[in-house]
Design brief:
Layout (H helix, E strand, L loop, with lengths): L1 H6 L5 H19 L2 H4 L9 H21 L2 E13 L10 E5 L4 E6 L6 E2 L4 E6 L1 H102 L4 H96 E3 L4 E6 L6 E2 L4 E7 L7 E7 L1 H4 L7 E6 L4 H4 L2 E8 L6 H8 L2 H8 L5 E7 L26 E11 L2 H12 L3
Antiparallel strand pairs: 1-10, 1-14, 2-9, 3-5, 3-8, 4-7, 5-6, 7-9, 10-13, 11-12, 11-14, 12-13
Helix pairs in contact: 5-6, 9-10
Length: about 500
């Protein structure tokens, strides 16, 4: 082997000869037994040298115990995320959820797919809503058919009713006209004629009454003359007969006056009855006009009611269609990349059930932020401004240390799992970080380094050769204080000596 190695050297013959000569001499010296019989010379160290070394060590330890620093840290678990661009904005990793209850019959995306806000990611079967929609469409079709049929029939019925009302109105108007003519005749002819008769009879009655008075005076004057024989009894009887005849005429005229008065009263009553009949017929015409309008109004009202019902059914159908779209479609709330699918086709889901996770399209220029969770006992000691070392689970702490950071904010009270889920966007991660309990939440700002491969400043080295990405689970070590080592020794000495 040694010769093979020598043969592989440069092919210079002089060099090869010198090397072979040196090697031969060396082998000759080693083979000589006298070399091994020579004694080694051992030199002893002075005590002062050992004491000096020990003193230096003790003094160094003393200096370190006084001026050295031992950090006091608390550990928390968290996740690396890009911070929100503004308050109220969604976290970088968000869930897309089921908007309705049912069975998933189709998923349209896979892990790693790029999606846009509002994009349909899957379909959920909604048999109940589909059945309601079919029933409403059937009801709408029946109502439209009824509307077309009833509108024609009711229109004909309305026309017939209005024609009958018009005929009845014409008949009543003709009767009113006849009664008006009769009333005019009664008032202007018959009643005036009776009044003229009454006036004539009144004149006759006055004349006859005067004649009766004269004849009664004549009878009363001639009756003594008959007893005296101045006038014959036949002449007296004739005078008396004329007086009786005149009284009979007066009675007849009074009877005629009473008869004319009765006729006048009857005629006036007839006139009033005619006027009342005309007013009654006029009221009937007004009633018929109302009926005419009401028939048309009722027809329009029924037609409008059916139209309103049709519009109401159309509104219900539109609402059902909108509800069906909302509940049957799984919509992406944000633009980003599908990180994980949490449900599969055929699975029955409830409203709000997470279907998958989306990593939002955050700007790469936004640095990562560590969201850390501490037990209440440890978290209450953390205050903003403290130094932090954050080690992602993708690197070894003993090799790279951790990313340097600083506490930005700390919640005053322990937060719930729901609050952690709202920030991290994942229920499983929130459960793991909070251990299904309440933890103090702290936001850690990380120091960036554009020249480092990872993009951040590390405590023990330049960090790994790969980029640190969002969504990495990490451990955080917050430096509460840095104490000299001697402060830990003094309490032990006090305990040993009993000095408190």
């Amino acid at each position: 082997m040694e010769q093979e190695q020598l043969s592989k050297e440069a092919p210079n013959p002089q060099t090869n000869h010198a090397r072979l000569t040196f090697r031969a001499k060396a082998l000759e010296n080693i083979s000589s037994s006298e070399v091994f019989r020579q004694r080694l010379a051992v030199r002893s160290l002075t005590p002062w040298f050992a004491l000096s070394v020990l003193g230096i060590i003790v003094f160094s330890i003393l200096l370190w115990s006084i001026f050295g620093k031992i950090p006091v840290t608390v550990e928390g678990q968290g996740i690396l995320l890009r911070r929100r661009e503004a308050p109220g904005q969604p976290p970088e990793i968000s869930n897309f959820v089921a908007s309705g209850e049912g069975r998933i019959n189709q998923l349209l995306v896979l892990e790693g797919d790029s999606v846009q806000a509002g994009q349909v990611l899957g379909m959920i079967d909604q048999p109940d809503l589909k059945l309601q929609l079919r029933n409403k469409n059937r009801e709408l079709k029946e109502l439209i058919s009824q509307q077309d049929a009833l509108a024609d029939l009711e229109g004909k019925s309305t026309n017939l009713t209005q024609n009958a009302i018009s005929i009845k109105k014409d008949t009543i108007k003709a009767e009113i006209k006849s009664l008006q003519e009769r009333a005019s005749f009664i008032k202007n002819t018959k009643l005036k004629s009776l009044q003229v008769q009454r006036q004539g009879l009144n004149s006759q009655l006055s004349r006859i009454q005067e004649l009766v008075n004269l004849q009664e005076n004549k009878v009363s004057r001639t009756e003594p003359l008959v007893k005296e024989g101045a006038i014959s009894e036949a002449s007296f009887i004739q005078i008396k007969e004329e007086a009786i005849k005149t009284e009979n005429t007066l009675s007849q005229i009074n009877s005629d006056v009473e008869k004319v008065d009765v006729d006048i009263a009857t005629t006036e009553e007839e006139y009033q009855n005619t006027i009342d009949r005309i007013a009654n017929l006029a009221a009937q015409i007004n009633e018929l006009d109302s009926q005419f309008i009401n028939v048309d109004l009722q027809d329009r009202t029924r037609n409008e009611e059916r139209k309103l019902k049709i519009q109401s059914i159309k509104g219900e159908i539109s609402l059902l269609e909108l509800t069906l779209r909302q509940r049957s479609q799984i919509i992406s709330p944000y633009s980003g990349i599908i990180l994980d699918m949490l449900a599969s086709e055929g699975q029955v889901v409830q409203v709000g059930t997470p279907i998958g996770q989306i990593q939002l399209n955050k700007s790469p220029s936004i640095p990562l932020t560590a969201v850390m969770y501490f037990t209440p006992g440890d978290g209450k000691k953390v205050i903003p401004g403290m130094k932090v070392s954050v080690t992602p689970d993708t690197v070894k702490r003993e090799e790279y240390g951790g990313i340097k950071g600083q506490v930005f904010s700390v919640t005053p009270y322990p937060v719930s799992e729901q609050s952690a889920q709202e920030y991290t966007g994942d229920k499983t991660i929130a459960e793991a970080l909070t251990e299904k309990g309440r933890k103090i939440e702290a936001i850690i700002q990380l120091e960036t380094d554009a020249n480092a491969p990872s993009g951040y400043v590390w405590t023990a080295s330049k960090g790994p050769s790969f980029r640190i990405t969002s969504g990495s689970i990490a451990a955080g070590y917050v430096t509460l204080e840095e104490n000299p080592p001697i402060t830990y020794v003094i309490p032990i000495l006090r305990k040993w000596t009993g000095l408190y």
